[in-house]
C-alpha cells in the first residue's frame, strides 16, 4: 500500500533592504525604489524617511514590504494612539495611518485627489476647496465586526480583521469606534462565548444613531435557542443596545423587540431634518462630518427657492431632504424600491412630501433619453447632485455630457477618486463641463479612504473627443505601480 508523504514546507529566509522613501501611495504605504529600480510599497513608511524593510512579495514590476527599522524619521511621524495599530502579524486592519500626523493625513488625501483627477481624467479644478475636518477619534458610528471562536487565542474574538488577513484582530479596545461601542467589545466576547450558536454567528453589525442609540445586528446561521434569546436581550438591557437578528441577507434583519424597528435616526440640525434608518442601511459612518458635508453640498449648489433639483443615488434622502428645505421641488432617484419607499416616508415625517418626489430607477443603465424624460417631467432642472457608490456614475455622466438640456450646476460627492476622475473626464472633455472646484472631506481619519466633492458648471461643448482616449494618454505617462487586485482592505 502506497502512502503519500507530505513534504515539509521550507521556511523562507527573510530578506531585508534599505531605501529612501519618496511618497505615499493611495493605500497610505510608503513608495520607494530599490537598487534595481523596482517600485516598492512599504507598510509603515513615510515620505522622506530612510528605512529598512522586509520583502513580503516580489512581482516583475513591483514588490511589497513592511518596515523593520527607521533610520531617518519624518517630522510628520507620530506615536499611534491605539495599542492594536501596527504593521506586523496580528495588527488590526481598521486603520492604516495612525503613525502619520492628522493634518498631514488630510494634506496627503488632498494630493491623492488632485493627482488622480489629472492622471486618470486629465482634468484640474480651477480652485481647491478647503478640506473638511471632523473628529479624529471615536467617529465611527457604523461598523461590521467579525466574530470567531478561536481556542488558540483563548476563545471568542470580536473585531476588525487583521491587516491583509482573514483572521480577526485580538481587539480589547478601539480608538475609532464610538465610546459606548468600545465599552461593549469585551462584554460582547463573553456574550457570544455563552451562546449555544457561537460557532454559527460570524458577525455583528453595529449602528449608532445621532442620539447615541445603538443597534447590534447578530448574523445568525442557526436560530438562537430560548436561552440564547434571554442572554441577548439581557445584554441589550445592560448595555443600552437594541438587539437585531439577521438570519440571511440584509433584508432579513429585524429587531427582536418590534418597538425598536424605527428607533435609529440621524439628525441634520442645520436643516431641521431627521432621517430614520435601519442598522443595515447605508449611512455615512461619521455623523459630524456627514452633517458638515451635507451643508457644504447644499451651499455649493447655490439653490434658490424657485429651483428644481435632481438628486441621483439619493438613498434615504441624506441630501434630498435638506435640499427640499431650500428648493421648490427635489426629485430623488435611487435603484432600490425599498429605499425609495422609506425615503418617501422620511419626507412625510419631516413635512416635505409636497416638495419631494422619489423614483426607483437603475442608474447604471441611464441614457440621454432618460435625462430628457426627467427634464420634461420636472419642467426643467436647475441643479443636480450626484452621490454614487464606488462604481461611480459613468452612464449618467455620459448622458449629461451629451445633452443640450443642461442644469446650471452639478455637485458630485464621491467615495472613490478614480471613478470621480473618470466621470469628470467624460463631462469635461465630451460635454464642455468645467470643474470649478474640488476638495476632500476627511470622512475616515487614519485610513487611506478619500471622500471628495467637486463642483461643475457647463461651458461650450468641445470638438468631440472621447474621454477614453484622453485616459489612455494619461495612463502612458504614469507608471502602473499598484495593480487593482493588490490594494489593501478598504474602509468600507
Automatic annotation (TrEMBL):
Q: Which family does it belong to?
A: Belongs to the class I-like SAM-binding methyltransferase superfamily. RNA M5U methyltransferase family. RlmD subfamily.
Report the EC code(s) recorded for this entry.
2.1.1.190
Q: What is this protein called?
A: 23S rRNA (uracil(1939)-C(5))-methyltransferase RlmD
Q: Where does [4Fe-4S] cluster bind?
A: 82, 92, 95, 174
What the entry lists under SUPFAM superfamilies is as follows: Nucleic acid-binding proteins, S-adenosyl-L-methionine-dependent methyltransferases
The terms under GO molecular function for this entry are: 4 iron, 4 sulfur cluster binding; iron ion binding; RNA binding; rRNA (uridine-C5-)-methyltransferase activity
The source's domain of life comes to Bacteria
Instruction: Pinpoint the TRAM domain residues.
Output: 10-69
Q: Which CDD domains match?
A: AdoMet_MTases
Described function: Catalyzes the formation of 5-methyl-uridine at position 1939 (m5U1939) in 23S rRNA.
Which of UniProt's keywords are assigned here?
4Fe-4S, Iron, Iron-sulfur, Metal-binding, Methyltransferase, rRNA processing, S-adenosyl-L-methionine, Transferase
For this protein, what reaction is catalysed?
uridine(1939) in 23S rRNA + S-adenosyl-L-methionine = 5-methyluridine(1939) in 23S rRNA + S-adenosyl-L-homocysteine + H(+)
**NCBIfam families from the UniProt entry:** PRK13168.1, rumA
Extent of Low complexity compositional bias: 479-492
Region of interest (Disordered), ranges: 457-492
Q: Has UniProt tagged this entry with the keyword Cell wall biogenesis/degradation?
A: no
- Biological process GO terms, please? rRNA base methylation
State if 4Fe-4S is listed as a keyword.
yes
Residues given in the record as S-adenosyl-L-methionine binding sites: 284, 313, 318, 334, 362, 387
Q: Which organism is it from?
A: Sutterella parvirubra YIT 11816
